Give the backbone structure.
Amino acid sequence: MTLDLEAADYTLSGLRPFPVAVTTIHEGRANGLMSLSAGSGSIVPEAPRVTISLTKYNLTHDLVSASGVFVMHLLAATPEPALDASLKILMGLGGSSGRDGDKLASFDTKPGVTGAPILLDALSYVEGRVVGTLDAEENTIFLADVVGAGRLRDGERLRMGPAWGKLPKDWIEQYEANHEPQLASARRHRGLAK
């Protein structure tokens, strides 16, 4: 039986409609990225947990591994000024590597209870302290106790499909070019490199 990759992509991508901004800090170095792989890590309402999956290629992965802390932010789709701020966050954290410069310098932040930066233009956030990890070859899945949370504004959550449609074409082209080395790294980690 041949694997239907289109059907797999349709099913799996449907599980990740909300882009999240992930920030962290270790020994004074802060960084962040955009992820489509975050979720709730517990059903216990009085002791919430959060999961994120970060590829080993990213500096944020290394900083979360070392510090054991991160903030996961939802972005706003409404009202219009909040959407503009969300798209700036998406482009700023998703368009380049933290190894090339300070990705958080242009954003308003404040330190959370763990010291990790909270993006003040986000819709909401949960701050996590890592309690477990799963090495998944190309990435690490981090499970964290939620130690802080906040709702920063009213509005609807930004969905990836509509957000992607609002991004400038030249930024998308640059993102896709920058994404190639990450994909190559993931393939190598999984023994799929050609």
